[in-house]
Specification:
about 325 residues; binds N-oxalylglycine; metal-binding; Plant_2OG-oxidoreductases; oxidoreductase; about 20% strand; binds nickel (II) ion; Jelly Rolls; seven-stranded mixed sheet
Length: about 325
């Protein structure tokens, strides 16, 4: 990692004081040049985060770890002698909060864990909407603009991917999660404060997203790049595997509703936009098959689909 690279850390409590302007500028710079920033004093109670962490780790030990090990054995992955490029070394499950929750359909969650996840999800949803308005302010868009675009007719899609990245005996042979940009809107990540692994690609260099206790890491998905006409960027990121330690990561995706119409905001478009306009669900159908490829061909494909009115029929897969 280059020495002069300083990962943007934003103290949200400073929005209420003298340093508001600098804080807004820091967020704007991060959205333009990093696609990522890390939040402290974000208003989500630290004891709630501690409980979520404890229960997520217990849940993994009790219900997930054995399954992960069996999966490795059945696929012959317990020892790797050559690089594998089509799998991710992660153990995950998905919670959907909006438009309808599936929290009560997930097996093996204690009532306490479910309740904490529901509370955490609601607070993250509120934080996401607060952040969208900060982005609007920085972009010169009217307050509520992004939230409204994301709403569609059924409200936003909001879900949480609960992941563990177990220790890996051959870290050089496999990624925890292969490099990708996120398809959706705003991603809010509660990551392990001890075991690192998340990296983003900045100016051709992989940079660590440093573990920081009780922080929430924010990153921008492809939709925000489209809506801002490229002023803000979705940035490639990946998770490296580690020899020691199990990395917890709880990533929540605040995305447009399936029928939301996405297009570059008029006021941010000069002569003509390079970016396509589409219905969010059509983008997701395309993304499901090409997640681990660069985003530019996706934008291009959506432009072509609009031109031919053929929205690329690919089977829908639940993916964030
Ligand atoms: C993702 C992702 C990062 C992490 O799920 O899209 O980038 O640290 N996760 O789990
Ligand atoms: Ni991601």
């Amino acid at each position: 990692m280059e020495k002069n690279i300083k990962f943007p850390v934003v103290d949200l409590s400073k929005l209420n004081g003298e340093e508001r302007d600098q804080t807004m500028a820091l967020i704007d710079d991060a959205c333009q040049n990093w696609g990522f920033f890390e939040l402290l004093n974000h208003g989500i109670p630290y004891d709630l985060m501690d409980n979520i962490e404890r229960m997520t780790k217990e849940h993994y030990k009790k219900f997930m770890e054995q399954k992960f090990k069996e999966m490795l054995r059945s696929k012959g992955l317990d020892t790797l002698e050559t690089e594998v490029e089509n799998i991710d070394w992660e153990s995950t499950f998905f919670l959907r909060h909006l438009p309808q929750t599936n929290l009560y359909d997930i097996p093996n969650m204690s009532e306490e864990y479910r309740a904490a996840m529901k509370d955490f999800g609601k607070r993250l949803e509120n934080l996401a909407e607060e952040l969208l308005d900060l982005l609007c302010e920085n972009l010169g868009l009217e307050k509520g603009y992004l939230k409204k675009v994301f709403r569609g007719t059924k409200g936003p899609t909001f879900g949480t991917k609960v992941s563990n990245y177990p220790p890996c005996p051959n870290p050089e042979m496999v990624k925890g999660l292969r490099a990708h940009t996120d398809a959706g809107g705003l991603i809010l990540l509660f990551q392990d404060d001890k075991v690192s692994g998340l990296q983003l690609l900045k100016d051709g260099v992989w940079v660590d997203v440093p573990p920081l206790k009780h922080s929430i890491v924010i990153n921008l998905g492809d939709q925000l790049e489209v809506i801002t006409n490229g002023k803000y960027k979705s940035v490639m990121h990946r998770v490296m595997t580690q020899k020691e330690g199990n990395r917890m990561s709880i990533a929540s995706f605040y995305n447009p509703g399936s029928d939301a119409e996405i297009s570059p905001a008029q006021s941010l478009v000069g002569k003509e936009s390079e970016y396509p306009s589409f219905v969010f669900d059509d983008y997701m159908k395309l993304y499901a098959g090409v997640k681990f490829q660069p985003k530019e061909p996706r934008f291009e494909a959506m432009k072509n689909a609009a031109a031919t009115k053929d929205a690329n029929p690919v089977a829908a897969v639940e993916t964030f």
